[in-house]
Amino acid sequence: MAGELPFEKPLLELNAKIEELRKFTEEKDIDFTDEIVKLEARAKSLAQEIYGNLTPWQRVQLARHPERPTTLDLINELFTDFIELHGDRLYGDDAAIVAGIAKFNGRPVTVMGHQKGRDTKENIARNFGMPHPEGYRKALRLMQQADKFNRPIICFINTPGAYPGKAAEERGQSEAIARNLREMASFGVPIICIVTGEGGSGGALALGVGNRLLMLENAFYSVISPEGAAALLWKDASQAQRAAETMKITARDLYELGVVDEIIPEPMGGAHRHLAQTAASLRDAIKGHLAELTDMSREELVADRYEKYKSIGRYAALTESI
Amino acid sequence: MPEERCIVLLKDIFYKKRRYATVQTGQVQEDKPMAKEVPEGLMTKCPKCGTIAYAKELEKNLKVCQGCGHHFSMTAFERIAMLVDEGHFFEYDSGLLSADPLNFPDYMPKLEKDMEKSGLSEAVVTGEGTIKGYPAVIAVMDSRFRMGSMGSVVGEKIARAIEQAIEKQYPFILFSASGGARMQEGVLSLMQMAKTSAALAKLSAAGGLYISVMTNPTTGGVSASFASLGDYNFAEPGALIGFAGRRIIEQTIRQELPEDFQTAEFLLKKGQLDKVIPRKELRDTLAKILDMHTVRRAN
């Protein structure tokens, strides 16, 4: 199949062999049933072996898989009556972020996320999911609208990062990200953020200040890409695999660091293998967290978010400080 | 020389601190033997125009080159000394030290080296003081310590300083000098951007004043969080300010960038800053702004 990853090769080869034997059985009238049963059992344990012990780098590859569900895929699965809304009212409409209003379980919400493309053409149009300031400002505008109309905000995070370009700098990439961080901290509505693929540093965080931060099982979230870290650490971008381990970027790592509230399981082989199943797990998680947040007052929601981020970080206190 | 003066200042400040405040904070710097400073020459050469000046003269001129106006970087305590009324600074949280949450290779030795080199416990010094009699909570980053990068301690100290500003109803003034988030603390560093910005949201909601002064350099995650969130965003002349690094941008867009790209002056032209303020005018300008925000005078 398209987009097969190197570490999946043994399994895919085995599956191809099983398929071949099946065909043989049908066409040549030779009975391979026993072999097939045996091989299928082996394929099952091999799948378990491969997907049950994914390395951080393998998860990075799954998170970046070209067929990974995009934000629009997930919105279509999880919400009804989605109406996409455009533009930041200041400069333009950034296709790297999609946003709009929709219903979740019958309840009006504002939903948004980074949007990657499926193929090269679409990826160019979407700028590979790397927003400019106008993308973050569109997101902010619609979050302010959600705050006004008391709608929960749901953000899907899936970006290599904010776009490092000349125009982006000139229009205030830093300011756009910074403002979102501050404003997201102050909204009086529930905010649920979910890293669905790549969580690329500040460009991801700019949609990521929520009462809850959830991650799909194979998503990753990092202050710098594994390639970038490798280039800085060992002056060699090809050491990305090692950097992926050193940087502690998997959902499990972030859960243990107290950053992520829940890890959402993916189907065997990754989210792209079964969109409906992925969506079902996401739906359950969003439903549960939204229910917990629904009864909180506006002030409580702001305070809850503040406490969440205030408590993140590890340090040593040498003496008593004020 | 600058470093020598810094040591004297440090001790001054700690000494005065005890008189000034009743709360005892950690004496990190005093417990450690001061780093042996490499004796600098009598003369300092400006990296921009080559003008050679007596280091003492340069210092008197607030470390600004007489020839071309180049602003040399200042240590955190030099900055504090330049800014606050003599003897009126009380440091917060000097006992917060970085841990090594990711077990990152070589992180601890690097921290120790920078502590020794800078005489600081971390890349930001926070505290309260008065500027021409106006009280303020002040945070000053120091690029000599891990390039001023923000890890858990920097984020926590800044957030705590902001909380002090809220509680005391003091304005908050921050001098940034940072390469961005601290890679060695991974995603925890990233989350400090959210932590500090959330604290600023609280300050803003309480009607508090926040003045951000960006000094060379203010980039990456620091630029994309608290440094850009001032009610007033100022910068020192020539400071490098930006989100992405110049080389990365050039590689991405495959074109050369203008010479002055990401300088304070460039950003001013692009509408991203309120004002570029030469160092000599900084204390006066800040005092004026504090005055206009009708902060009650100390004493």
UniProtKB/TrEMBL annotation, chain A:
GO terms for cellular component: acetyl-CoA carboxylase complex. PROSITE patterns: COA_CT_CTER. It comes from the Bacteria. Residues 42-292 form the CoA carboxyltransferase C-terminal domain. It catalyses: N(6)-carboxybiotinyl-L-lysyl-[protein] + acetyl-CoA = N(6)-biotinyl-L-lysyl-[protein] + malonyl-CoA. It holds the Pfam family ACCA. Keywords: ATP-binding, Cytoplasm, Fatty acid biosynthesis, Fatty acid metabolism, Lipid biosynthesis, Lipid metabolism, Nucleotide-binding, Transferase. It is found in: Cytoplasm. The keyword Disulfide bond does not apply. One of its GO terms (molecular function) is ATP binding. Its EC number is 2.1.3.15. Pathway: Lipid metabolism; malonyl-CoA biosynthesis; malonyl-CoA from acetyl-CoA: step 1/1. One of its GO terms (biological process) is fatty acid biosynthetic process. Coiled coil: none annotated. It is an enzyme of class 2 (transferase). Belongs to the AccA family. Component of the acetyl coenzyme A carboxylase (ACC) complex. First, biotin carboxylase catalyzes the carboxylation of biotin on its carrier protein (BCCP) and then the CO(2) group is transferred by the carboxyltransferase to acetyl-CoA to form malonyl-CoA. HAMAP family: AcetylCoA_CT_alpha. Acetyl-CoA carboxylase is a heterohexamer composed of biotin carboxyl carrier protein (AccB), biotin carboxylase (AccC) and two subunits each of ACCase subunit alpha (AccA) and ACCase subunit beta (AccD). This is Acetyl-coenzyme A carboxylase carboxyl transferase subunit alpha. The lineage of its organism: Bacteria, Bacillati, Bacillota, Bacilli, Bacillales.
